[in-house]
Batch of 3 targets.
Target 1
Amino acid sequence: MISITSEGTETLPEKKPISILRALQIPGVWEFSLCLFFSKAVYYTFFFWLPVYIKETTDVVNHIAADLSAVFDAGGIIGGILAGAVSDATGGSATVCGFMFILAMPCLYCMVEYIGHGVAVLIALLVITGLFVNGPYALITTAVSTDLGTRPSLVKNTHALATVVAIIDGMGSLGSAVGPLIAGLLSQYDWHAVFYFLIASQAVGLLCLTRLIYREVRLWLNEFRSRRERTALRFRGKVPPNLRQKSDSFLNTSSRIA
């Protein structure tokens, strides 16, 4: 309903913001929130502890270790751009994140096993690991708000959208605090334990997205089947009736044989 003020101008009624409980009931909010929690935990562990890890496991000096740690962020820039481009092309942000989670786990294992094989190997590992670690983090914090904005319960409701994005980003901020804390405690014993913790975080983040990945893959399969059926119907419309009858009888015979 539109109200008219005393000055003669029209004002639209304000939409009331949804409650936090109602926002948590929107499909995808819990999954993306937990996924961002573990994704930020891994990223900020690298952000705070990577120079220390390089200094303690290699022969480089402090300023060289700090410079090498910046290579990880360079790989993260590439990963964010790549994740966004693939997500736009396929329409499956959850599947893109899950695929990067899977590829990040062996990269993290190689980071702890092959750290002492020279600077060139270290730079390559940092670029590749940064690409797959930062890709989901960048994609969730940017594209998820757009994905949620297309849902019927959030269309043209900026108050609801802000609440949902705040919940997701708040969970991510919590992960950015918990991850480095646990890594600092584990680093007192062994760096292998730190990277096993990071690998486990990636695995749990992947599990959080399984339902959304399944939904996206099922949607792709349905679109593929419908496209194939439309192509078949279009082809049948161009075939002469006598050839179409022969084709149908051949398909029926083949189906009975199968």
Target 2
Amino acid sequence: LTSTAWAFVPAAKILRPEIGIISHPCRAQQVQPSSRIFLASNTGDSSIDNDNTPDVGNIAKYLVATSLQFGILAGALKLIDKLVFLPKPVVGLLFAFLSLRSRIASVLDNSRPNREAQDGKATPSDVKRPSWTPPGIAFPFIWLTITGLRAVSSAMIYGQTERLCSAPLLSMILHLCIGDTWNTITNTEKRLGVSAIGCVVVWISVWNAIIRYYKVIPLAGKILAPSGVWISIATVLTYSIWRINTPVQPLWPVKGDGKSASFKWSNLGQLQPTSI
């Protein structure tokens, strides 16, 4: 799920509700009574910021980047519809490409995990994983299989609707865009908590696509359904990884946590050639 090493500042180890004491290797500090546990991440200096204020700017960045990517891809499909009628096999190849490289239209760094740098493991060695985590080598095969299922089912939908810019196929495009933003959160920003929430959004988007495909052609929905099953498993895995890695990170981006990926127009057109 991730590609580089992480470092964390130790969070609260002792919390007494009546006085709120947070212990630290260098100092103990009395804070105001509070019902929540403050979490902190290492930003490269020795100071600790216990402010868990949500970073509204980063939340807006995720929404804008996803919407912009969706708009670019949807516009491209609409343009193709106006110019030419594609054979079904070509549409299958198109959606296979988008399944692997939809991030070509993203302004964020959507790099996938580099399995080679992680010694073939699903996550970096310093990230705790549940015992049932699939081996890293399984992920490329799983995603290549899902790519094939997306291609076949999307070609079937196109054969029925005769339009690329149709509601079912656009639901797939939206799913891919949300997944790309989730990859930025997980692999570039290393935000475990935000990743856990984001994976739920990815899960909702894939089942939305499956249902829409099923309504047009039931068989197409059934062909796409295994991708929903896998993402259901991935959602539980992402949540489990978030919970077992301490200190537990917040479920939202935090101001000053030093993990924000840049919004860059130069990311458009880049394929980020890392492993799946």
Target 3
Amino acid sequence: MSNSEEDVMKMRLLVDGDGTGDDRRLNMMLKALIKWCNAEEDQQTCELTYQRMLTQLASIEWNMTKSRLAASMNEAELENYSNVHKKVESGIISAREEIDETKAELVEAKRIRKNRMEYDALAKVIMNHPDRETSEARLEQVKSEQRQLEEKQVKLEDKLDIRKKQFHVLVSTIHQLQDLLAEDEEESECKTGDLSKDCNLVSPASEDSMEVELAD
């Protein structure tokens, strides 16, 4: 459809108004005007026809004015709707940006909260441990105790060596004593054997005399 046809349609719509036949009335009025101009009627009939045409023209003008006002109102409404649509779109974009910012803030807040929890836990661990001066003093004390223990260990090892040597000497002495006792036992056995031999050499008379003496 060309622009001229669109203009004609728009004009017809403006003339027709709300679709109540204003275009038809305008055509009828045009025909009546031509007929009135060419008619040979008396003045009273011409006046009535003239007033009737004025009434029809006023009605058509009113309908055209109303149509133009409605068109202007529609255009204003369209413009208003367009502005509202732009505002709504702007509000949606702004809301999305705020949502994104809120999400980023939420992520940051979670990270800060996590860091704070870790810091609090670390602070509790640090508070449970002594300070540097106390730790150094305790370390020096432990080192001193370690040196004392090392010295004590050396002394105990020396003492243990002495005890080992003494025990070795004692064992040697025991062995020597055992050897001496064994020799003494052997000598005693030899002496006992000699005495028994001497007893066997004594005479029976002597035995009788010994019995008599015992009886006395």
